[in-house]
């Protein structure tokens, strides 16, 4: 089951296709390999070690070297923070998309810096970081920031399984992440509503042409909080929602 019917049909078609044999598998250096490599280049940063390792390493034809661009970006982001090589490598593996926004970069740096100082990253600290951005978004830029907040909370959860003593409030942060996800959903609905109509937040009026018994007919679709629609009107409204939802998603990708 997918959010949009069109995606459900696509998923069903892909699942019915025969599974193609895997020609190659991706491979990345383990921490142990990077650590051994660093013994010969003790003055190199992690980003430099990754670059040098990638330039001189080779793999058999059954494998290909995975890109280390994201890990390298994270390594550069926290390069100035004093950490052991193992801890630095772990923080760089954190599945967070460093998209260059100031909020995301700053928040992650503050988290890593607090860890490097030997302090626990508590729920109070996390709330101090994110609560100023935890509100409904009415434009794409605000929605992106909400997405960054969600990513920071996800990063906390991921790190809490690697550094349990320093990330002790996993359950409380998970609750905060659920709240953030709810804000994102409501924000998308609000933006779809605004895109569909500029008249009212409670009423959506759309004119949709459709063919009925061979005759072209134009009908006004009115959506109210407690209103109901006929079958064809529901189809047009659902399709309209899909189109607007895709519009918002495509805007976020840019």
UniProtKB/TrEMBL annotation:
Gene3D superfamilies given in the database record: 1.20.272.40, 1.20.58.1080
Signal peptide: none
Residue ranges of every copy of the ATP-dependent RNA helicase SUV3 C-terminal domain listed in the record: 148-187
Domain Suv3 C-terminal stretches: 74-99
Name of the protein: RNA helicase
Species name: Meloidogyne javanica (Root-knot nematode worm)
Record lineage: Eukaryota, Metazoa, Ecdysozoa, Nematoda, Chromadorea
């Amino acid at each position: 089951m997918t959010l949009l019917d069109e995606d459900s049909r696509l998923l069903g078609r892909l699942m019915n296709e025969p599974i193609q044999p895997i020609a190659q598998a991706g491979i990345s250096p383990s921490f142990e390999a990077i650590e051994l490599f660093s013994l010969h280049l003790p003055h190199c940063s992690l980003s430099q070690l990754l670059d040098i390792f990638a330039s001189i390493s080779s793999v058999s034809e059954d494998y290909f070297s995975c890109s280390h661009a994201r890990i390298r970006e994270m390594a550069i982001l926290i390069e100035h923070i004093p950490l052991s090589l193992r801890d630095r490598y772990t923080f760089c593996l954190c599945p967070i998309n460093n998209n260059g926004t100031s909020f995301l970069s700053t928040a992650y740096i503050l988290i890593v810096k607090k860890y490097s100082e030997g302090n626990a990253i508590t729920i109070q600290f996390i709330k101090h970081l994110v609560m100023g951005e935890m509100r409904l978004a009415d434009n794409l830029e605000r929605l992106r920031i909400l997405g960054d907040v969600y990513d920071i909370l996800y990063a906390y959860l991921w790190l809490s399984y690697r550094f349990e003593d320093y990330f002790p409030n996993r359950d409380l942060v998970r609750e905060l992440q659920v709240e953030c996800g709810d804000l994102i959903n409501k924000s998308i609905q609000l933006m779809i509503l605004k895109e569909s109509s500029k008249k009212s937040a409670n009423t959506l009026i759309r004119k949709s042409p459709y063919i009925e018994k061979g005759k072209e007919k134009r009908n006004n679709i009115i959506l109210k909080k407690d209103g109901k629609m006929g079958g064809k009107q529901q189809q047009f409204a659902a399709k309209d929602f899909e189109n607007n939802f895709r519009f918002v998603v495509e805007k976020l990708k840019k």
